[in-house]
């Protein structure tokens, strides 16, 4: 059940962004100590238990879905996105990784044209191209400062975007909790098949940190779900950029890393692009309700 309480929804969303950054900071620290797949696997163990609890509490056929192929596809996209994300933050700064991650919403809009049949006007195209330019400024391919590890984060954003498109396609038929459970179980199954080949016995400190980042990640997911109960996604979209502030602070305080001037320039362009795109999305949705062109 949704309720119109925007301030409450925004509060949940802002806290979730902080929780995610704390989880990511722990994952970055662990990424040099444990195999990436193992870190992701532990996250998915907790995520699956969390999703199972949410789904089990719902009345009716909670685990039944309309398209198993789409659910499995979404699950594979998200587990690939999660694994590539940790690979990305292992070798580049948190602020840079967060900035490149904002490529995701741009890709969602681009993919929605062929996959969902949506129409994108010239102004939204211009905003999207500006956002892509911002990502290129951060990556700087061909420059001496180019970090190929940043491409892991690009790949993560691409898989996330495809997963979100599949989520939109299933939104009218499957419950959110059911979709979450299928995604969690799909990812856990894939990672469990791989884990025997890469497993490393963690020490008590590493195990505690891995459990903490797993719990925080699931808590962040729950907070996002709660925020969407109270506030429309289009209203929440501009607040996603607060995560860049948290990531910059965490990178500086924990890893003594601060983004360079070109990363800041690229981030500013991406944020401006994202804010304008979110504004156009709101106008488009409002016009659609009124039967008028945006």
SS-derived structural category: mainly alpha
**Helix coverage percent:** over 70%
Specify the number of helices. 12
> Strand-residue fraction?
under 5%
Produce a short descriptive summary.
With 294 residues, the protein is an all-alpha fold. It is 78% helix and 0% strand.
Task: Describe the protein.
- The model has no long low-confidence stretch (mean pLDDT 85).
- It is built from twelve helices and no strands.
- It is an all-alpha fold.
Topology (elements, then pairings):
Layout lengths: L5 H25 L5 H21 L11 H24 L2 H8 L1 H14 L5 H18 L10 H21 L5 H23 L5 H27 L2 H4 L5 H14 L5 H30 L4
Helix pairs in contact: 1-9, 1-11, 2-3, 2-8, 2-9, 3-7, 3-8, 4-7, 4-11, 4-12, 5-6, 5-7, 6-12
Main attributes?
294 residues, mainly alpha, 12 helices, 78% helix, globular
